[in-house]
Amino acid sequence: MDSKDVEISKEIGQCLYDIAPEDAKTILMIAALSPEGDVSQFEFYSNNGINESEFSINDSDTMKLHYLAGAHQKFMVANKQPAWTRCEFTVNVDANKFSMELGYEEDAFRDGFLR
Questions:
Q1: Span 15-50, pLDDT tens digits
Q2: Comparing C-alpha atoms, which of 84, 59, 80 is closest to residue 9?
Q3: Predicted local confidence at residue 110, as pLDDT
Q4: Positive or negative, the Cα torsion across 54, 101, 42, 98?
Q5: Smallest Cα–Cα separation from 11: which of 51, 69, 55, 56?
Q6: CA dist list (Å): 62 to 3, 55, 77, 82, 94
Q7: Nearest CA-CA partner of 28 in 38, 6, 9, 13
Q8: Which end of the chain, N or C, is surrounded by fewer C-beta atoms within 10 Å?
């Protein structure tokens, strides 16, 4: 049985897989989340092995990812970790693996792009 943070991460990965372009080999989500978890900003990129492109998602998928990111952040805080404010979540479709890099920037929200 996986720990709660791994379960949430798997849900994020599945959601990204479901909403990414069909030819995606790599999917990248960059998320900025307030320390309280109530405000978020996302960017999504896919790479088909030749080109990388940004893609957008609908509001309900954005809300789902906001909820999952917030749940992950809350789990970390409940386990005596600082509240992360930036996340780069990568899905390697061919390998069926994901990675999650967390950041603790004071101001993770940026004008323009997060990248």
A1: 999 999 999 999 999 999 999 999 999 999 999 999
A2: 84
A3: 74
A4: positive
A5: 69
A6: 24, 12, 22, 24, 24
A7: 13
A8: N
Query: What's the pLDDT at 24?
Result: 98
| Residues linked to residue 42 through DSSP beta bridges, in sequence order | 31
Beta strands across the sheet bearing 26-33 = 52-55, 40-47, 26-33, 86-92, 97-103
pLDDT at 26: 98
Kind of pairing, strands 97-103 and 40-47?
unpaired
Name residue 3's amino acid. S
pLDDT digits (tens, 9 = 90+) for 54-86: 999 999 999 999 999 999 999 999 999 999 999
Residue 89 has pLDDT above 90, yes or no: yes
CA distance linking residue 42 with residue 74, whole number of Å: 18
Instruction: Report how far residue 91's alpha carbon sits from residue 108's, in angstroms, rounded to the nearest whole number.
Output: 22
The enclosing H or E element of 9 equals: helix 4-19
